[in-house]
Amino acid sequence: MDSDGGSLTISEEFSPEVQSASIDSVTVDGEDADTIIAEADSTGAVVTISSVPADATVELTYTVTTADSEDMTYEITGTASSGDDEVNTGSTTLETAADDGDGNDGEDGNDGNDGQEGTNQSESDANLNAGGTYWEGQVLYEDGFESNEDYQIINSETGILERERTANADGAHLIDTSGLSEGEYTLSKSSGSFNFTVVEQDLTITADDGEVRNSGNSEEEFEVDSKRGSFDVEVTADDLDADELQNIFADEDDVSNTEDGVAFSVRGGSTATGNFSGIDADNYTLDFSVTDTDAEDSVDINVSDAGDSEAEFASSVTSDQVGDVADITVELENTDTAAVTVGNIQDDGYQANLTVEDGNDDGEVTIQFNTYEAGNTTGSDLASAANSDDSVTVLEGDNLTATTFSSSRLLTDHGYRMTVRAGEDPTADSDDPGTLNLRPRSTDSLSVGTAPQDMSYDDVEDLADSVSQDSTISEGDQIVVEVDASGIEGLVGGADDYSEFTNDENVSITVEQEEAKANRDPKTAELSDSNTDVYTNGDEDLYYLVVDSSALDISSDDGSYEATFTVEENSKLNPSDDDETVSDTFEMDGREGTIQPPEVEASSGQTISGTTTIAAGSEVRITAEGDDTDNPFLLEETATVQNDGSFSAEFDFGGEPEEGSNFTVYLEDSNGNSLADSVSGVVGEAPTAQVSYSGGISEDGSVVTVDEVYLPEGGFVTIHDASVEDDPIGSVVGTSQYLENGTHTDVQVELDSAIEEDQTLIAMPHMDDNDNQEYDFVDSEGDNDAPYTDSNGDIVVDAGDVTLQTETPTDTTTDEPTDTTTEEPTNTTTEETTPEDGDGDGDSDGDGQPGFGISVAIVALIAAALLAVRRQD
């Protein structure tokens, strides 16, 4: 260096190259130097100082980082030059040892940072606190150590040492939790110890459908599923660079480029939105990785070319009445937006300009265009979207809705030109023309019906299904006024309350007594929001007022009332000099009913019925209460009133009620109010099973048809062949499915094998006495599912002669069996039917239902039953 001083350049060269290097400081005589150049990389370091006095001391400090898998030796050589002078600054040998995982490989001997150079708190993900919970992979900062202190991380559950590390000279350290499995750990140091918890982070990324276009509707949502709250993710993809990825996720929070992709903030349980507009059509795999943990996931996305954007009307002609709300549906292809014009100011004297946006990506938007408000207003009162996810905007400024007539009148009934195009410019060329055809409105009819008291409805369709067209209304039931009028939807179509329906000078509704009593004014039913609800069906031009009659000062003593709907004269809806009116009459009746005298038997399926004046669809409660102290019982069922006022319910008198028991029947409405005088009844004798079989069989001989069977307690119909008298079990050739209690007709019984010749088959009803709905008579050898018997204790059967359809039927098949079957059983059946113990087990089988263990008794009973059948024939 010359004695006058000047600039100074210091160069350092590393051999071999290191992983990285950085300049820490440059000083001249202990003061920070004014540097022109201060650069360092893997090959070396260069510093140029603008001015250095003669004899000054210059100190350059830099840090090199190595990542060695084996022991290495590095040589650092340097020069210093000023002007034309250059001198060697000497060389230094740097030896490093391979990283053995103990974290003490830094050359200064004090870093101990698991392979990280220095201990910079800013490089940590969180401060380590006692009792804290951290995600596996996070780097934690702790500065509570002694200088160069060794400390331990111990598994709290097992007591096993997981790691030992060394703090730096300042008593600080960065602790990388990578490799620590989920669990609780103890940090042990000289000043004491504390616990912290490591939790493994999960991450699942799911694409909405994995398919997206690169223009128009080019957004795809990605569901982020993780038990962690807020965190940052980095997204990379092999075929997308960082700039492309940043454009895709530009709308996310805290977006920043990384070396290979893009990073942004997400939350577990939320979604991230990617916009693939302008991305080349291809299949991509997006790799999501949490920036401070090891959690990662990948998702595939297929980007396709969108093609040209286009918008068109779903129907070229949309028709409605003037004053109604017209539904105009726009279909979108490769776009989310379209501009629509309704009318043409030069040709139609009216024009509205709108834009629509498809918010739910279903490719269409339905505009609800209010023709009552047309010409009067802009915004949501004029037009709105049928689907709340979509949007419709009425344009303002130069594109404001325009009209050439006074706002006090409706649009003329007329065909209005419509146009639509993709995008948001209503002046652009149209993709598709259409017509809004507005027809004249009308006031057509009013009718009065009724519905049950306290009834509530999910929607207008539910209401319409519940109304009965009955002009006689029971006190307390609902009065339902139905108005059929077109062209009022735009005014009252959204009404829920009476005041919303009649808050305009255009329409009104009144309910007034037709004939007043002497010297009195006619009574008027005062309708209000508190007693009247409104349901509208503008698509069908139907409007319903549901009135709680119990809240009105009207009764069955008042005679008839007239309900009248009026469209006022000289109004916007009716510019003529005469009112438009429609009306209907109704009258009130008391809440009354009658109960048919009950005729019931000690069995299930017994019916109690009656009639009532309350509205069809109402529920009534029928109670049968035993009157005898030695046989008390209480049976209760609900029934629905039919259109003719009748009701009925089935009761089970086969349980507690006994034959001959007295009882009383009561009738109440759903609120517990009595509707009728009580009536008395007596429980009759329980009916017995019955069966009728006329020999019906399928052409192939495989399916028998039993004409009719009555089963008091449910059960089966079994088909036996003629050997039943000798072998009640072996004679079973087919059994029906389980049959509920009651009468069944044309019961199909599939035979175990088809019969091949004409013969006699016997139909026999069986009980399900073990209540398993399985036919167990054969498997139990007669212990279960015994045959039904009649009031005399005889088995219920019916025999039918089966004739198969053949080309050469025989003439003698019916004669010979007749002579042989009537003689032999006659002498034996009368003697064997007397024992009360039908199953031979020594006990009494009550109620005339013997236990049918296979014995002489059952054979005798079957034979007796068949004999009775033959005698009837």
Protein architecture, described:
This protein has 873 residues and is mainly beta. Helix content is 7%, strand content 43%. It has eight helices and 60 strands. The strands form 14 sheets. Strands 27, 29, 30, 33, 34, 35 and 36 form a seven-stranded mixed beta sheet that branches. Strands 18-25-24-20-22-21 form a six-stranded mixed beta sheet. Strands 4-5-1-7-8 form a five-stranded antiparallel beta sheet, with no helix packed on it. Strand 7 and strand 8 form a beta hairpin. Helix 7 crosses helix 8. The radius of gyration is 48 Å and the shape is extended. The termini are far apart.
Give the rounded overall mean pLDDT.
85
**What overall geometry do the principal axes of the alpha carbons give?**
extended
Query: What's the helical proportion of residues?
Result: under 10%
- Beta strand %: 35-45%
Unreliable residue stretches: 100-118, 812-856
What does the main sheet amount to? 7 strands, mixed
Strand and helix layout:
Layout: E1 6-15, E2 20-28, E3 31-32, E4 35-40, E5 44-52, E6 58-65, E7 72-82, E8 85-96, E9 126-127, E10 133-135, E11 139-142, E12 150-155, E13 161-166, E14 173-176, E15 183-189, E16 192-199, E17 204-207, E18 211-213, E19 219-225, E20 230-236, H1 242-248, E21 253-257, E22 262-267, E23 270-275, E24 282-290, E25 296-304, E26 310-313, E27 317-321, E28 325-333, E29 337-342, H2 345-348, E30 350-357, E31 364-370, E32 383-385, E33 391-394, E34 402-403, E35 415-422, E36 432-439, E37 443-451, H3 460-466, E38 472-474, E39 478-485, H4 489-492, H5 498-501, E40 507-513, E41 532-537, E42 542-548, E43 560-567, E44 580-589, E45 593-595, E46 600-601, E47 606-612, E48 619-626, E49 634-640, E50 646-651, E51 662-669, E52 679-684, E53 690-692, E54 696-697, E55 703-711, E56 716-720, E57 732-735, E58 742-750, E59 759-766, E60 798-802, H6 816-821, H7 824-832, H8 856-872
Helix pairs in contact: 7-8
